[in-house]
Design brief:
Mean pLDDT: 79
Shape: elongated
Helix content: 10-25%
Oligomer: single chain
Distance between the termini: 24 Å
Number of domains: 1
Strand order of the largest sheet: 1-4
CATH class: Alpha Beta
Largest sheet: 2 strands, antiparallel
Radius of gyration: 14 Å
Number of helices: 3
Number of strands: 4
Low-confidence stretches: 79-99
Structural class: alpha+beta
CATH topology: Alpha-Beta Plaits
Order of helices and strands: EHEEHEH
Strand content: 15-25%
């Protein structure tokens, strides 16, 4: 008998090319793990606390531009439950598979 599998943790991955910085995802995020980050003259959403993300998908559902996709967290982020450190997850750093 194989050991029980841990559920894959899904985290929001924000595509900066599609994100307009409108802040709708930030407003709907109950655990407040998303923020807007200024990059030059533009703003973009950023997951600043992967450990606190519940994976509820409200941010992805609320984004009218399709800039947020829920993807399986990379192993390094999966381990953040025991760490207070967090690195931003963007479309460039997230794994390609969503499940």
């Amino acid at each position: 008998m194989s050991p029980p599998r841990r559920p894959t943790r899904l985290l929001p991955v924000i595509d900066p090319a599609r994100c307009t910085g409108c802040g709708r995802c930030v407003a709907v995020c109950a655990p407040h793990v998303l923020c807007l980050e200024r990059q030059g003259w533009e703003k973009t959403a950023l997951l600043h606390d992967a450990k606190g993300c519940t994976g509820c998908r409200l941010c992805a559902l609320r984004c009218p531009f399709g800039a947020i996709e829920m993807r399986a967290a990379p192993p390094a982020v999966q381990c953040l439950a025991s760490s207070s450190a967090c690195s931003p997850i963007t479309a460039a750093t997230a794994p390609a598979q969503a499940r």
